[in-house]
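In the design runs reported in the main text, the only information available to the sequence generator was the tokenized backbone. The following block is the verbatim input for one such run; it is reproduced so that readers can re-run the procedure and compare outputs position by position.
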């Protein structure tokens, strides 16, 4: 087995204590945080990540659960007014959109889910700086 197959195998058979500590740490971090290297190197490489200048990795936390429609503030509420909304976007797409808003000069290349618990989903988003000289010089 090669390196990436070993990484995928290790990802599918996680160490429970390590993940518990990692999620405790991630919950205390900001919602959007820039990271030095991907947590899942095998998945990031499949999706286009290269370990060179111009590539940026960001971990985004998205709140899980039902989303609520704003309440009616004045007047009477209609008979068919329901507060809960069904999600039309998946959590990964929401994470990509939020990261794109935070990093306007970068372009979202791809993303992948990293973890979830009862309250949050975490996704890592791969961003590329299209104006970086190293990226401009690359043919691909």
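Verbatim output:
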């Amino acid at each position: 087995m090669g390196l990436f197959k070993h990484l995928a195998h290790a990802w599918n058979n996680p160490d429970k204590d390590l993940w518990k500590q990692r999620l405790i740490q991630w919950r205390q971090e900001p919602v959007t945080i820039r990271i030095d290297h991907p947590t899942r190197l095998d998945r990031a490489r499949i999706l286009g990540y290269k370990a060179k200048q111009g590539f940026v990795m960001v971990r985004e936390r998205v709140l899980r659960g039902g989303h609520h429609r704003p309440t009616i503030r004045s007047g009477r509420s209609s008979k068919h007014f329901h507060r809960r909304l069904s999600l039309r976007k998946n959590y990964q797409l929401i994470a990509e959109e939020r990261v794109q808003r935070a990093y306007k000069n970068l372009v979202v290349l791809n993303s992948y889910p990293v973890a979830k618990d009862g309250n949050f989903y975490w996704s890592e988003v791969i961003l590329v700086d299209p104006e970086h000289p190293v990226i401009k010089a690359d043919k691909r």
